Amino acid sequence: MKLLHKNVDKDGRGTITLMPEEAEDIWHAYNLISIRDNVRGSTIRKVQNESATGSSTSNRVRTILTINVENIDFDTQACMLRLKGRNVEENQYVKMGAYHTLDLEVNRKFTLSKAEWDSVSLERVDMACDPTQNADVAAVVMQEGLAHICLITSSMTLVRAKIDQTIPRKRKGNVQQHEKGLQRFFESVMQGILRHINFDIVKCVLVASPGFVKDQFFEYMFNQAVKTDNKVLLENKGKFLLVHASSGFKHSLREILADPAVVTKMVDTKASGEVRAMEAFYQMLQTEPAKAFYGPKHVMMANEAQAIETLLISDNVFRCQDVMQRKQYVALVDSVRESGGEVKIFSSLHVSGEQLDQLTGIAAILRFPMPELEDENEDEND
Fold first, then answer.
1. Where does a domain end: 236, 268, 300?
2. Which long-range contacts (CB under 8 A, 24 or more apart) does 67-71 make?
3. Is there a single domain that holds both residue 147 and residue 247?
4. Distance in angstroms (rounded) separating the CA atoms of residues 307 and 305
5. Please, are residues 123 and 227 in contact by the beta-carbon 8 Å criterion?
6. DSSP result, 11-69
7. Pick from 5, 51, 233, 360: CA 20 to 30 A from residue 320's CA?
8. Do 141 and 176 belong together in one domain?
9. Last residue of a domain, which of 268, 296, 331?
10. Torsion angle of alpha carbons 40, 45, 48, 49, nearest 10°?
């Protein structure tokens, strides 16, 4: 994301102009834009002209519109953002108050005006515009007959391809059929890797599976690369890292990213930081339950006692329609930071973020035990 213009007053009111440069920037825009914000951008409008004879012709014109956002629709697979709202600025083609939709696209600038830019929104702008934030990691999670090829960026996990093929069972007298099916499957996965992974950007490719499937695939892929003299694979052999996973499904990414070998390789990426924080929370929940809590009520009470060491919060909670509720969460984030705590804002498009959303989207690891919060929980249950 490129920051083109920023004008924010001391009281938080102001406008910021941004230019999305890649698909992930549209996700950042989705987290920045709230209902009742004003967005100015380029769009196409169908205009009807009536001639003196009464015949009418319609043509499409490109115009700049400013709408007051009433509806936000984000397509995760295509990484497209569609905003719907009323026109709030004079325009020769669109009447004031008329409904229109704006599609935010890569390489097309937009200006966002907010009544109040809070600390979470400004932090999101800084993060989106920081080129070092991109985690250049790909993952192939597989088992016999099933593989998911994923790209792990700093804000989302994108499944770029799913390969699902039937492989004949390995029975006596059927070994040859099984081997042929397995090779056909490995060939499809290899082609998927070549099609969806850009080795100029990706610095690490995780290949994970239960058992020896990953090792068989790795051997097959590089045997084929030698036979066909595939320079792309041969030059990037050192980027592949084989890891154990319990299955070939996407949710196995969580355990892969928690693997010590992977952690050292991906030490700077946001995704692995989220997974480590989530693991620490679950560990604390098992060993010292009085120092780990989830749910807004208990976390807010722990914050009042300045007891929060690490706050785990999903970006989903900041997208709530209730302005007062959002302000409450922003105040919580600011308060935890002021008292010396660490705040981890999880992306709901990462497996760890999905997991946190199942725990109400907010959790905390405390500096000291607060058994009184546990007692209150038991009283509520009674």
1. 268
2. 67/38, 67/39, 67/100, 67/102, 68/36, 68/37, 68/38, 69/33, 69/34, 69/35, 69/36, 69/37, 69/38, 69/39, 70/35, 71/35
3. yes
4. 5
5. no
6. TS-EEEEEE--SHHHHHHHHHH--TT-EEEEEEEEEEEEE-TTS-EEEEEEEEEEEEEE
7. 5
8. yes
9. 268
10. 60
Same domain, 91 and 114: yes
**285 Cβ contact partners less than 8 Å away, ≥ 6 residues apart:** 292
Please tell me the distance from the alpha carbon of residue 266 to that of residue 253, in angstroms, as a whole number.
13
Same domain, 44 and 112: yes
Report the pLDDT averaged over residues 128-153: 81
Contact 272, 304 (CB under 8 A): no
Query: If you search the block for the tokens 């992930």, which residue do you land on?
Result: 24
Give me Rg for the CA atoms of the chain: 25
What angle do helix axes 270-287 and 351-358 make, rounded to 10 degrees?
40
In which residue are the tokens 């804002």 written?
A: 345
Same domain, 44 and 62: yes
Go through the chain and tell me how many residues it has. 382
Q: What is the pTM of this model?
A: 0.68
Give Cβ neighbours of residue 224 (< 8 Å, ≥ 6 apart): 187, 190, 230
Could you please report the per-residue DSSP string of 345-358?
EE-TBSHHHHHHHH
Single-letter code of the amino acid located at 211: G
Q: Give me the amino acid identity at 84.
A: K
Q: Which domain holds residue 24?
A: 2-132
Vertex 89 angle, CA 35 and 91, to 5°: 130
Going 275 to 258 to 246 to 250, the CA torsion angle's sign is positive
∠ CA 105-109-113 to the nearest 5 degrees?
A: 110
pLDDT in tens, 254-312: 888 887 777 766 655 666 778 888 999 999 999 999 999 999 999 999 999 999 999 99
CATH number (domain holding residue 143):
3.30.420.60
